[in-house]
Design brief:
Layout: H1 15-19, E1 26-30, E2 33-36, H2 37-53, E3 61-65, H3 71-81, E4 85-88, H4 95-105, E5 109-113, H5 117-124, E6 131-135, E7 145-147, H6 148-154, E8 169-175, E9 183-188, H7 191-204, E10 211-214, H8 221-234, E11 237-239, H9 247-257, E12 261-264, H10 266-273, E13 288-291, H11 298-308, E14 312-317, E15 324-327, E16 340-341, E17 346-350, E18 363-368, E19 375-377, H12 380-386, E20 387-388, E21 391-400, E22 406-411, E23 416-418, E24 421-423, H13 425-433, E25 438-448, E26 451-460, H14 468-481, E27 490-493, H15 507-515
InterPro entries: AMP-bd_C (IPR025110), AMP-bd_C_sf (IPR045851), AMP-dep_synth/lig_dom (IPR000873), Benz_CoA_lig (IPR011957)
GO molecular function: acid-thiol ligase activity; ATP binding; CoA-ligase activity
Organism: Thermus caliditerrae
């Protein structure tokens, strides 16, 4: 494992590539151009100088409401270089959510792009003392605001990184969670290198000659590693896609820029497979595909392999651990599982009482690794419940098979107890998705006359329509493949599921839908 010096600033992830002579190499590709490592370094330094000139001091927060453009890495690494703390957030949220982020974090500056600017303006009304920096748009009337492009030009010049400690705050990420307000997850300067020297090195085996493309956005921990941390660490190139990653746009991007590593979530893998003509598209540049954020159904894994001849490595990570800590690899692969612990991380399964569970039984997953969050901002009680010494409580339930592969059994609060027996919603969902009529499925527990029963919400494939006959057919399908108590007694047909920004199904909202 890499030894991080005591005085360390993670923005020097760029300096490494200049020292290796990669200054003229393209660090970023996008629809309208590219940027070399030298240009990225210079703009990062200029942004850091600009923040200092605007009076942003060490450890003060800079909220980033940016889509995937070159402004994102410049603002993110520039803030860190200046000693400030960037907080990337979803650029597609409502104004009240941005207002919450600003007020909760005490942000002193907000960087917004053209797409998010109107909602950011609305969020900042009646809030004083916050610097507004605008990228790719005219300055709003009536505001004391600054154009990012003009700031970079006015403050051009190199800047040594702030003399930070490896255990100083580097950046925050807000974790949406399943309920309640988002939680500010505080990460330290040494966390990014740790993920680069564990998952990126041992699972991806990323090299300087790779080109990454992540359909999952940079504001998310998964996308941040995929398309910023990992390529910059080794001097590889990355491809940024601004706007919504629709199947057609993703396929066009792959064909144009020829990435070698492709990252997305199961929902988009499935959408691409269902996209007309997808199987005729050229994905031959890709050497490896990665999935995370929610479990990858084995049926999608098989269909993707059949369609494109490409292997998807599924794994589990979290905002709190920064990236993937348990994963399949080319050397150890079981479709449907989350793989084995990534070198550098330890996993254990415990009962609710804190005791190790017997082999083969499901337990609460705890993980240990040095990329873990320092704490939740303004969430002292939550921090105490989630961090026990070196171990982080994930809130996921898993079981381990005889070969050491971890199998997801659902969130701890998503598990369904029917007739005194635990049912994994994932197992029922995967079984339903093996039926030719089912495109996607989500399973929750519902209460009927005081007893818990299983209800499935189903999205049908094209050519199939809801009917009582189909419902009975799906139930019999599950009965034939699962234990008798695991079949869904109720099936509802739905156009789409409520999802998080990364496409993860929000089962708690399905439960609310059931109760409405």
């Amino acid at each position: 494992m890499l030894e991080i010096p005591e005085r360390y600033n993670v923005s020097t992830i760029l300096d490494r590539n200049l020292e290796k002579g990669l200054g003229k190499k393209a660090a970023i590709h996008w629809a309208d151009g590219q940027m070399t490592y030298e240009e990225l370094f210079q703009r990062t330094c200029a942004f850091a100088r600009a923040l200092k000139a605007l009076g942003i001091h060490r450890e003060e927060r800079v909220l980033m409401v940016l889509d995937d453009t070159w402004a994102f890495p410049v603002a993110f690494l520039g803030a860190i270089r200046a000693g400030a703390v960037p907080i990337p957030v979803n650029p597609f949220l409502h104004p009240q959510e941005y207002r919450y982020f600003v007020e909760d974090s005490y942000a002193r500056a907000v960087v917004a792009d053209k797409g998010s600017l109107p909602r950011v303006e609305e969020a900042l009304k009646e809030i004083t003392g916050v610097r507004l920096i605008v990228f790719g748009a005219d300055l709003p009337e009536g505001w004391e605001a600054f154009r990012m492009e003009e700031l970079l030009e006015a403050h051009a010049g190199e800047l040594p990184p702030e003399d930070t400690h490896r255990d100083d705050m580097a950046f925050w990420l807000y974790s949406s969670g399943s309920t309640g307000r988002p939680k500010g997850v505080v990460h330290l300067q040494h966390d990014i290198p740790y993920t680069c020297e564990t998952y990126a090195k041992h699972v991806l085996k990323i090299q300087e000659g790779d080109t990454t493309f992540s359909a999952s956005k940079l504001f998310h921990a998964y996308g941040l590693g995929n398309n910023l941390s990992f390529p910059y660490w080794v001097g590889a190139s990355s491809v940024l896609l601004q706007g919504r990653p629709t199947p057609e746009r993703v396929l066009e991007t792959i064909e144009r820029f020829r990435p070698t590593l492709f990252f997305t979530v199961p929902t988009l893998y499935n959408a691409i497979l269902n996209h007309p003509g997808a199987r005729d598209r050229d994905l031959s540049s890709i050497r490896l595909c990665v999935s995370a954020a929610e479990p990858l159904p084995p049926e999608i894994w098989r269909r993707w392999k059949e369609a494109f001849g490409l292997i998807i490595l599924d794994g589990i990570g979290s905002t709190e651990m920064l990236h993937i800590y348990c994963s399949n690899s080319l050397d150890a692969l079981k479709p449907g599982s989350s793989g084995k612990p990534v070198p550098g991380y330890e996993l254990r399964l415990l009962s609710p009482e804190g005791e190790p569970v017997p082999p083969g039984e499901a337990g609460d997953l705890w993980v240990k690794g040095d990329s873990a969050l320092a704490f939740y901002w303004h969430q002292h009680e939550k921090t105490k419940r989630s961090l026990r010494g070196e171990w982080f409580y994930t809130g996921d339930r898993y079981r381990v098979d005889e070969e050491g592969f971890f199998w997801y059994e659902g969130r701890s609060d998503d598990m369904i107890k029917v007739k005194g027996l635990w049912v994994s919603p994932i197992e029922v969902e995967n079984t339903l998705m093996e039926h030719p009529a089912v495109r996607e499925a989500a399973v929750v527990g519902v209460t009927v006359e005081g007893l818990t029963r299983i209800k499935a919400f189903v999205i049908l494939r094209e050519g199939y329509t809801p009917s009582e006959t189909l419902t009975r057919e799906l139930q019999e399908w599950c009965k034939a493949k699962l234990r008798p108590y695991q079949y869904p007694e109720f099936i509802a047909y739905i156009e789409d599921f409520p999802r998080t920004a990364t496409g993860k199904v929000q089962r708690f909202k399905l439960r609310e839908l059931q109760e409405a």
